[in-house]
Amino acid sequence: MISQFFILSSKGDPLIYKDFRGDSGGRDVAELFYRKLTGLPGDESPVVMHHDDRHFIHIRHSSLYLVATTSENISPFSLLELLSRLATLLGDYCGSLSEGTISRNVALVYEILDEVLDYGYVQTTSTEMLRNFIQTEAVVSKPFSLFDLSSVGLFGAETQQSKVAPSSAASRPVLSSRSDQSQKNEVFLDVVERLSVLIASNGSLLKVDVQGEIRLKSFLPSGSEMRIGLTEEFCVGKSELRGYGPGIRVDEVSFHSSVNLDEFESHRILRLQPPQGELTVMRYQLSDDLPSPLPFRLFPSVQWDRGSGRLQVYLKLRCDLPPKSQALNVRLHLPLPRGVVSLSQELSSPEQKAELGEGALRWDLPRVQGGSQLSGLFQMDVPGLPGPPSHGPSTSAPPLGLGPASLSFELPRHTCSGLQVRFLRLSFRPCSNANPHKWVRHLSHSDAYVIRI
Amino acid sequence: MPYLGSEDVVKELKKALCNPHIQADRLRYRNVIQRVIRMPGVQEYIQQPILNGLRDKASYVRRVAVLGCAKMHNLHGDSEVDGALVNELYSLLRDQDPIVVVNCLRSLEEILKQEGGVVINKPIAHHLLNRMSKLDQWGQAEVLNFLLRYQPRSEEELFDILNLLDSFLKSSSPGVVMGATKLFLILAKKFPHVQTDVLVRVKGPLLAACSSESRELCFAALCHVRQILHSLPGHFSSHYKKFFCSYSEPHYIKLQKVEVLCELVNDENVQQVLEELRGYCTDVSADFAQAAIFAIGGIARTYTDQCVQILTELLGLRQEHITTVVVQTFRDLVWLCPQCTEAVCQALPGCEENIQDSEGKQALIWLLGVHGERIPNAPYILEDFVENVKSETFPAVKMELLTALVRLFLSRPAECQDMLGRLLYYCIEEEKNMAVRDRGLFYYRLLLVGIDEVKRILCSPKSDPSLGLLEDQAERPVNSWASDFNTLVPVYGKARWATISKCVGAEHGGSERSHTASFAVSGHLISEENKGRVQEAPDSETLMLVPNCQLTAEYFEKTWLSLEVAHQQVLPWQGEVHPDTLQMALQVVNIQTIAMSRAGSQPWKAYLSAQDDTGCLFLTELLLESENSEMQISVKQSEARTETLNSFMSVLETVIGTIGDIKS
């Protein structure tokens, strides 16, 4: 049971405030929450806080705080889930979730809240049921941009660019203007994987962990059936065997409750009738056994002259992706010993950048092609770090406080597990005539890619 | 201030409510009933529309109307429960619409709050179980929570229910999975192997939540992992890698993960875990680095050598925030694991340059004082402190210095005598802080009495490994926390939750004590023989002692004399009693001391009182006679109930057992 729900901007301004029970506080509760949040001692978690007999539970979503208060000892899992569901729902209806969209669509947000929660109890969160009751249209502001024009080819011809969905295509309201329905027949299917890796200093792999999700965002009229075909060699569990090759193996899979698994066993096909909006069709995890080589290898060598306090770090980064793929926004973060003062660098290509900040070295590589090798030589002065005298002349040992290095990157059109969507078929009811656009995207990105030095 | 509605709004609402067909327009009906909550002066208008709404054809209207009943009830304040309405709501549990069903449960729960909430008997429970698959995830989670209060009558029924629930353990919603897990744990109270089995099955979803993209969910899951680890220490050991921190995680998650790592360590993974923790010790965030060092200190209780080596290496960094925590860890470690004293003593010299804060200085000085005879230059390090005592800002450090120096003086008198004299002179003549001055005077006079007396007082034991056992919580049975699973308790942590519920309890305490006879519900869903049993159930489950029940001695005496002894028991007891310790320990579990004999008197007696949340009083007499080494306990109870008496006895036994153990 929720007593109040409110949304705060990142600066603590209340954007939305709803009191469901009328039994507590009033609007200043939002302010109280923000004060508590900012004044929290470092070792306490902000997720759940309490004041008098009221508990504040919140999530942070696209730099907004979605907060619920309750006076009961309720399940934290359900409540957190509800808050994130609300975030998705509001995102679906308003196009995207941000301070701007929320404040432009206040009436709509209140309307949704009225339907979702009554007297502090969840009624429904399904887009299907809600759309019968939501009357207000989302207000979308579209700033004019020259970029939009660039996708129109000469004499209206289709250019290369127009075949690629613009990045903003998915961020528009699911249920808006009934007039131009035909144009909005679109489905986005994303296979997103998060990769966490830990590599020991001798290069051996200590941990690989892949968290994958198949996300669907559908703008189709609901009720239309959809079949998603996955790679046939997709195996679940350690023992299952499929196909001839090593297969694509994951440890655990869970599906959304609306997915029909009749054809999953035989053909690896998921059947579902998605509601409009966003939906996580499938989640899977994979650890320790990766079919493809890791995307990156780092070969560090450290020279540490204790006498002069000179530290030389040579980093060689090899990208083991297939040559056609590439990694974007690669950034290497290397914590340094305290008191590092100066940095001189020699980088292997001009588009790279390296700088010192917050006691760490940051090396930015905007684009790394598969199979390529990049290197950087960094020299630093660490004056205030006399080494322990007992260790004698072993000058090559790295000083304590250096490393571990962590990488962050995105791998478009690549999944680390090897899972691919073979096809996405829509079986339409006869009434709709427009041919829907289907966008299937694969993406991997790093969650924690740590290499010890 | 909550918005109460202006005159006009109230008037308009009244007008709307007067329309006999108000529920015909679903949205308008919803709007009207929703706004009713905080408007005084519309009570008499809403009853009819709500009753009409309950029987409406449209499920949407029924949903709103069902919750409207709860609103109406709460609006009337402490009014009588309307029996007809309650019956109608019970019958609506059979409604076609799943949301109406869940809303009925919620509404009944609120209306019947005084009677202990909605009653879940066998027909209702089975009906709900069968409808579960029709509900959405929120409904499922909520119904699972309501089902907690149902107790199956036979083992067969129990396992039938567990089979029905099995599929919910695989749900994709963590809320439902955790709700089902909790229900399993509670239902299978008497079958530990079933509980272990469930906890094995929930491992997957929990670990998935721990690496979830939502930080908040991840945090809640980590807290629950810790809870499980308290009972099954090896449960997540093979998955230790999942709890390695990543650079980008927020601080509170890292801290939880370090705690988890510290708890799941075993022979196979200790090497890797320590390696990982050592990496954290040099983290940019000082808080996190310190937490990691403390965690290594925790592991050191079992794997001493490896940890001490890592900690010693960290001293080489010569960083203030690291050195101070390492020294504090050493202090605790030496006390708990005397075998590492030698290694610690070798590591200490040189640390003093890198410690600036009070805690670290105290720890270092304590170590130098107690183990000074093994550290060759201990007196010279302490001498530096004595030299600079004038500029020392922390009184606690000065007091520690006094004690340490007197101790060291006993083992190495020649090197310390002069310095001790100077320090005592300074403390007595120049020091402004009274506590320090008193301490100085105390040692001065003690030294005047003679060296034997000083030895007798200061040469306390230098280590006590048994304390470690007290500090590490022993493996707790799953049942001790099963009722807290999937609530806010693990998320806050048990200790913080206790303070929270205490201050909440102080505000609301006493108001809800009335435990009236069972409310007559004559719906066809409740069979008569079942009712009494079901309502008894919540009482017998747990004993909740009320924190501040203060009885006067006279009242105690009167009640004591008027009651019969309900239970008598004898516990083993060695030696004397320390009344203060015992009183403090009892206070912790909310048992108050009415009167107690002095320490050492023969025979020794104590009178205790406690009250549980239903108002039942427990009066206790403790009697210790000198000749036989046992403690006699007699308990009297104001209402004869065996279950609560038994749980009270077990609480009392635990406390007395613990106190007895510490002494012996």
From TrEMBL, chain A:
On the tree of life, the source organism's domain of life is Eukaryota
What PANTHER family does this protein's entry cite? AP COMPLEX SUBUNIT MU
Give the quaternary structure: Adaptor protein complex 4 (AP-4) is a heterotetramer composed of two large adaptins (epsilon-type subunit AP4E1 and beta-type subunit AP4B1), a medium adaptin (mu-type subunit AP4M1) and a small adaptin (sigma-type AP4S1). Interacts with tyrosine-based sorting signals on the cytoplasmic tail of cargo proteins such as APP, ATG9A, LAMP2 and NAGPA. Interacts with the C-terminal domain of GRID2. Interacts with GRIA1 and GRIA2; the interaction is indirect via CACNG3.
GO MF annotations, alphabetized: protein domain specific binding
Question: Which taxonomic lineage is given here?
Answer: Eukaryota, Metazoa, Chordata, Craniata, Vertebrata
- Protein name per the record: AP-4 complex subunit mu-1
**What keywords would UniProt list here?**
Endosome, Golgi apparatus, Membrane, Protein transport, Transport
Tell me, in one coarse class, where this protein mainly resides.
other
What does UniProt give as GO cellular component? AP-4 adaptor complex; clathrin adaptor complex; cytosol; early endosome; trans-Golgi network
* Function as written in the Swiss-Prot or TrEMBL entry: Component of the adaptor protein complex 4 (AP-4). Adaptor protein complexes are vesicle coat components involved both in vesicle formation and cargo selection. They control the vesicular transport of proteins in different trafficking pathways. AP-4 forms a non clathrin-associated coat on vesicles departing the trans-Golgi network (TGN) and may be involved in the targeting of proteins from the trans-Golgi network (TGN) to the endosomal-lysosomal system.
Q: Where in the cell is it found?
A: Early endosome; Golgi apparatus, trans-Golgi network membrane
- GO annotation, biological process: autophagosome assembly; Golgi to endosome transport; Golgi to lysosome transport; protein targeting to lysosome
- Ranges where the MHD domain occurs: 184-452
Pfam families the UniProt entry points to: Adap_comp_sub, Clat_adaptor_s
Instruction: State the annotated membrane topology for this chain.
Output: Peripheral membrane protein
Similarity remark: Belongs to the adaptor complexes medium subunit family.
The encoding gene is AP4M1
The answer to whether UniProt assigns keyword Secreted to this entry is no
Automatic annotation (TrEMBL), chain B:
Q: Which GO terms describe its biological process?
A: intracellular protein transport; protein targeting; vesicle-mediated transport
Q: Which GO terms describe its molecular function?
A: clathrin binding
Which residues constitute the signal peptide according to the record?
none
Q: Does the keyword Transport apply?
A: yes
Which residue numbers delimit the Beta-adaptin appendage C-terminal subdomain domain? Answer: 545-657
Q: Which GO terms describe its cellular component?
A: clathrin adaptor complex; trans-Golgi network
Keywords, sorted A to Z: Golgi apparatus, Membrane, Protein transport, Transport
Q: Where in the cell is it found?
A: Golgi apparatus, trans-Golgi network membrane
Which Pfam family is one of this chain's hits? Adaptin_N
Q: How does it sit in the membrane?
A: Peripheral membrane protein
**Looking at the record's lineage, which domain of life comes first?**
Eukaryota
PANTHER family to which the protein is assigned, alphabetical: ADAPTOR COMPLEX SUBUNIT BETA FAMILY MEMBER (PTHR11134)
Instruction: State the function annotated in the UniProt record.
Output: Component of the adaptor protein complex 4 (AP-4). Adaptor protein complexes are vesicle coat components involved both in vesicle formation and cargo selection. They control the vesicular transport of proteins in different trafficking pathways. AP-4 forms a non clathrin-associated coat on vesicles departing the trans-Golgi network (TGN) and may be involved in the targeting of proteins from the trans-Golgi network (TGN) to the endosomal-lysosomal system.
Protein name according to UniProt: AP complex subunit beta
Q: Which organism is it from?
A: Ictidomys tridecemlineatus
| Classification lineage | Eukaryota, Metazoa, Chordata, Craniata, Vertebrata
User: Which gene name belongs to this protein?
Assistant: AP4B1
